[in-house]
Structures are given as structure tokens and as C-alpha cells.
Fold:
Amino acid sequence: MIRLQRAVFFMEEEPACPADSKPLMLKAVLSCPILSWMSNQLLADGVQRFFLACDDRFAEEARKCFPVGAEVTVSNRHDDLLAFLDTEEQVAVLPRSAIPMAEAGAGFAYAAPGRELREVWKDKMTNAVSGAELLPGWLPVYSQETIDELELLLRERAKRSSGENA
Structure:
């Protein structure tokens, strides 16, 4: 099992996204922003430092998705990302919105030593990192339709769980 110390999130944005809209990572699933779901799970897994790559216009709202006192860097600057990765610690990489779900297999989330990511990403942002290991347990969120489906599933699970505990 990988011992994760840090995490990098890339907040995806639709290029044609209206100014009054927000990225999926800031949209809610069961009244909780997806980014909060992500950060809470990683904190529970032992991650201590976070880097969120996002546009400045979403920085304030994004910071609110982390608990008070969490060590979080929110930036859209490549140099800030490279500085964050100047470590041998294992870094989780989540290149898009996702919900933690134990039954989700390994897919798009991965982990690698920070300095290895730094070397690869110096010249080109790519997911082709030779020493990366896929991380299971993350269900990608691609659209509002995915959010709607997840809410139905999670509500149903909550009902079953509360019925079992009654």
C-alpha cells in the first residue's frame, strides 16, 4: 500500500464555460462540493499537503472545501506546482473530479514520487509518468448527469444503511 503524503488536484474547466458557471469539482453531491469529498478522503488516508491547480476566479471558493488548518496551495502557476513537487514523498494525482468509492477499481488517479512528477512535468504536462502506480477507489465525475446518478446511488445506500442500523 502506498503511503501518500501529498496530493495534486487539477480542476477541470470547460473552455466555453459561462462566467457564472463553476467547474465540476465545486459542484455539490448531496450538498457537499466534490472537492470536499476528495480532500476529506485524502486527509483520512494520511495526506498532509494539497496543491490545487485552478483559475484564480475559483480559488476562494475552492479553499473553503478544505478543513480549517489544512495545508493547501491553490494556484494556476506552473512554478508553484513544481515547487510543491520538490519532494521524494508519494504524491496522489487526481487529474479530474472524482468521488471516493471503495468499489471503484484503479483507473485515472495515480501516485508517484514528487520529484519524478516534477521532472516529467517540467516540460510537458502528461499522465505518462513511468514510476506511477494507479490508485483504486476513485470514481470519475464527467458531467452533471454523473452527479445526478451518484446522488441517487448514495441516497439509496444511506437509506439501506439507516434501515440496517434501526
Remarks:
- The two ends are 35 Å apart (CA to CA).
